[in-house]
Amino acid sequence: MFKHHSTDSLALIWHSNWGNFAAKVFVRVLGRLFYLPIVQICILLSMAFSPEVRADNWLCGVGINMRSLESRAPQNNDLVWRKVSELGVAAIDDLNAPEFKETKLRLSDLAFVPEYENAALSWMRSASRAGVEIAIASEHADYLGRHRAYVQSLSGGESGAPKMTSWSEQLLSQGLAMLLPQGRTDLTKLIAAENHAISQRSGIWSDRSPGRAYFVAADQGNADLSRVHDAIGRFVLVEGILRAVEHQEWRTYLNFGSDWRRDFTIALEDDVRRRLAKDQSPDDAFSGWIGQKVRVRGIVENRGGPYIAVDNPDRLCLMTD
């Protein structure tokens, strides 16, 4: 997804709009020579014995202001799983199976970063060797002819009994991918898987240094994280305490400091604001968010202060009690 041919590649976004953030050549070479063999040895063990992740109290998108748990997010009951005889993994964003003829597939709701593309690709190729099932997540293909899909494969469970393992959950829980919500699906398990990797500082979440971290703080309240001010032009996950909400006619601003000209701001366009508010007024919908911990993912722009414009409600999450 992060390669130049991917519609959901962070490299594509960065290269086109924000400059070249590709991994250095020597890092890729060293990764191929030393890191991948270790990954290949450990993949099956990680699938069999990876710890169960639990859903923390993060609510995302329209689920934030929904009252009943059952209605917070669409369920995955409408997915139709199909067993495939083999799954080809040409690239991290290029999957194919004989049962789907010439249709190219890519994993839905995931994005890959340059530093961990090789590790993710190695994991996917090893996981593709046993009992693979695929569910198509998008009716229409992207301009490269690829359909979004979910993949699961057979692996050993904690008790030794085989079970179907979600590729998305495994890649997220090991820090080999970032969550990038795209379709109408229940994100609960994916959020929990990613949060597990963040808490363990696994994979892409291990580097917290300025200008390199993918998980940054909205303000100075978290000494363990570098600040969002050091992430201008990059796609990152930002966390902070919401300080104030400002409503304008066509937009709502979520402010994380006293001075919007210097501090981090999230902008919600009217269509996103309406989807988040549901049947409530903006004042009623967002006033309860003040003082709460918020996470948002997106490209950080420089508009006086760091700024993320949210174009998908599911990329905004709120920590609840």
Automatic annotation (TrEMBL):
Pfam families: SNase. Residues 95-207 form the TNase-like domain. InterPro entries: SNase_OB-fold_sf, Staphylococal_nuclease_OB-fold. This is TNase-like domain-containing protein. It comes from Thalassospira profundimaris.
